[in-house]
Design a protein that fits this description.
- This protein has about 625 residues and is α/β, with parallel strands linked by helices.
- It has two domains: about 220 residues, 2-enoyl-CoA Hydratase, Chain A, domain 1 (Alpha-Beta Complex); about 210 residues, Alpha-Beta Complex (2-enoyl-CoA Hydratase, Chain A, domain 1).
- The chain has 23 helices and 23 strands.
- Strands 11, 14, 16, 17, 18, 20, 21 and 22 form an eight-stranded mixed sheet that branches. Strands 1, 2, 3, 4, 5, 7 and 10 form a seven-stranded parallel sheet that branches.
- Helix 5 links the parallel strand 4 and strand 5.
- Helix 3 packs parallel to helix 4 and helix 18 crosses helix 19.
- The longest helix has about 40 residues.
- The relative contact order is 0.14.
- About 5% of the residues have low confidence.
């Protein structure tokens, strides 16, 4: 028995040793695989720039200042083969074009706009952002290098950029569709009445029309006059830019739009031929013929002209769009999207999260000045004021603050902008809309339609005052209106303080009135015309940084998991689950995007007091 126990101990010990080494080998192997994957994913791979080559600016999806949404969720969706709305970051496009202008390896610029979304100012490509890219293209042309626009067809936003090229191609089956600018939105009064929903609205400002969809079935005459002036200004600017770029005679674009029916009939329905006859394009050609034209300049490689995409090019030249973190840097905080209370993901503006980024810039010893890039129609008044306060504190700390307005910086978007030492905008930026409103729906009549009634008892007249199942009491309505009145007075008083204007004058230009920046500059709401790069240069000048300084974008840092998922998705693994999951083009349909945008707008109403500085200004 003793010998048997001895053998059991020997074999048992041997087994434990064997098991330990097996586990050790497996753990080491797994660790090795993980390290290899991490190295493969995060290895700094710089694409080679062929010479000579064409820089291809292939714009996809929405043109944004900051990628929207949770980055990890977008990466996972790509890995699973799900539909992810593409986005093109504005600063990357401009940086690539500007760098290529001085790069002797790049002999031509090719614009591909077929996948660029041409939607409204907050979804797609607004005129102000298009003008920023247009300036970069014109600067590129000054180098003597040709610019080609290759397009199957062009909508209005796509054609704006194409018109900046030396040679504009169009497919024989294509068209140039220009339509001017408009602002159209649904109005819900009749529907709300039928449902028994009472929407209690409290506003200040004759032109504060953001509440009209809830209390009217159509646009008010005041709002119609206000927006007509804004839209006429935008369309006029579009026509001037294109006419100058294409060297067209006055009235050509107006005639092209106004007479599209009879002119197209005269062309036998051939829209490409009509665009050629009007001088909007230079050549009608199939894809292979377009590519052959570029090949004559840069040569051929594989099955097309020798080329490099702008995103690959940025990696090849060291990511020039991101700037650098030096001892002296200009910090840039992007405030893009609706303003909501609390924290918000990239692509939206959180009262707490955006304020935190501004505070980070203030406490960072390397950041000597701040640029706030604003592209927002506003939202929560409370959140807007939190962000404004951080701008004030940054200035008080001795760091200059310059505001760069994108397509829209209106209502709450202007609230967070007004404290800048200098405010830059493009002439077509939509701004102003200085006004606020309160909104509170009650549903007692809705429930009564199905026989449900709310009742109870409270200790004071205000008990249950904010219960949406009960009627809103006169006392509560008075409290709401007085709060809105106070908020508006605070708004115009602060504008007067920061913009050095009399309060009475701000009240006159306020009232919710929307201004194009071309007019806003005349009345003191904007200081200078220019894009983001102009604002960064101004901030460096105010901070006395001299010609050498870095540019540091302050954003929420990505976790290791986020970076791993994004890198995997960007390295061509987006087809991991393609073919396993059903695919649909639902997300590409205009009506779906319109409804989704409306639903997203409703998510903006998160102010803890129900008070909003918001502008329905999604111009299309």
């Amino acid at each position: 028995m003793r010998d048997k126990n001895f053998l059991v101990q020997i074999f048992g010990g041997t087994w434990h040793v064997y098991d330990f080494f097996c586990r050790l080998v497996i753990d080491l192997f797994i660790t090795f695989v993980v390290i290899v994957i991490l190295i493969a994913v995060f290895a700094a791979h710089k694409p080679a720039v062929p010479s000579p080559a064409a820089l291809v600016v292939n714009l996809r999806g929405d043109l944004v200042d900051q990628y929207s949404g949770d980055p990890a969720q977008r990466a996972v969706a790509k890995l699973l083969g799900q539909k992810v709305t593409p986005q093109t970051r504005l600063r990357d496009v401009i940086a690539a074009i500007e760098h290529a202008r001085k790069d002797s390896r790049i002999k031509a610029l090719v614009l591909e706009t077929d996948e660029l979304e041409g939607g409204g100012f907050l979804g797609g490509a607004g005129l102000s952002n298009l003008q920023d890219i247009g300036r970069a293209i014109r600067n590129f042309r000054k180098s003597g290098k040709p610019v080609f626009a290759l397009g199957d067809s062009y909508d209005q936003s796509q054609y704006y950029l194409a018109s900046m090229a030396n040679t504009v191609f169009i497919h024989p089956q294509g068209q140039v569709f220009l339509h001017g600018y408009g602002l159209y939105q649904p109005y819900f009064k009749n529907a709300l009445d039928k449902l028994g929903v009472e929407v209690h609205v409290f506003r200040v400002g004759k032109y504060k029309s953001a509440v009209e969809p809830f209390i009217r079935n159509d646009m008010s005459p005041d709002a119609r006059r206000d927006w007509s002036g804004v839209l006429d200004s935008l369309w006029g600017s579009y026509r001037r830019d294109v006419r100058k770029a294409r060297d067209l005679k006055p009235g050509v674009l107006t005639s092209y739009v106004d007479n599209i029916g009879p002119d197209l009939a005269a062309a036998g329905g051939n829209a490409a031929e009509l665009a050629l006859k009007a001088g909007l394009v230079d050549k009608i050609a199939d894809d292979d013929q377009m590519q052959a034209a570029v090949e004559k300049v840069v040569g051929r490689s594989d099955h097309s002209f020798r080329q490099i995409g702008f995103e690959q090019y940025l990696r090849a030249v060291g990511g020039k769009s991101a700037g650098s973190d030096g001892a002296n840097a200009v910090g840039v905080v992007v405030a893009q999207g609706d303003i909501v209370d609390g924290n918000a993901p990239p692509g939206a503006i959180g009262g707490d999260s955006t304020a935190r980024l501004i505070a980070q810039a203030r406490y960072d010893a390397h950041v000597k000045a701040l640029v706030l890039r604003v592209n927002s129609p506003g939202g929560s008044a409370f959140a807007s004021d939190l962000i404004l306060r951080q701008i004030e504190l940054t200035r008080e700390a001795g760091k200059p603050v310059v505001v760069s307005m994108g397509d829209v910086a209106a209502s709450g978007g202007y609230w967070i902008s007004m404290a800048g030492d200098e405010i830059y905008a493009n002439p077509t930026t939509i701004t102003g809309s200085i006004g606020i409103f309160g909104l509170f729906p009650t549903f007692q009549k809705t429930l009564a339609k199905i026989g449900v009634h709310a009742d109870g008892v409270g200790t004071t007249p205000l008990s249950g005052a904010l219960n949406p199942l009960l009627p809103m009491s006169p006392a509560m309505q008075q409290e709401f209106q007085l709060t809105v009145n106070y908020g508006y007075q605070q708004f115009i008083t602060k504008v007067a303080k920061f913009r050095h204007l009399p309060v009475a004058q701000v009240n006159t230009i306020g009232q919710g009135y929307v201004w194009p920046a071309s007019e806003a500059r005349k009345i003191g709401l904007v200081d200078k015309f220019g894009g983001l790069q102009d604002a960064i240069a101004a901030a460096a000048r105010l901070a006395k940084l001299g010609p050498h300084y870095g540019v540091q974008y302050l954003e929420k840092p990505l976790s290791l998991t986020d970076r791993l998922l994004i890198a995997m998705a960007d390295n061509g693994n987006s087809s991991l689950a393609s073919g396993l999951l059903p695919q649909t083009n639902l997300y590409a349909t205009p009506w779906y995007n319109e409804m989704k945008g409306l639903a997203n707008t409703l998510n903006t109403f998160t102010d803890p007091r129900g008070i909003y500085a918001f502008c329905f200004c999604n111009v299309q």
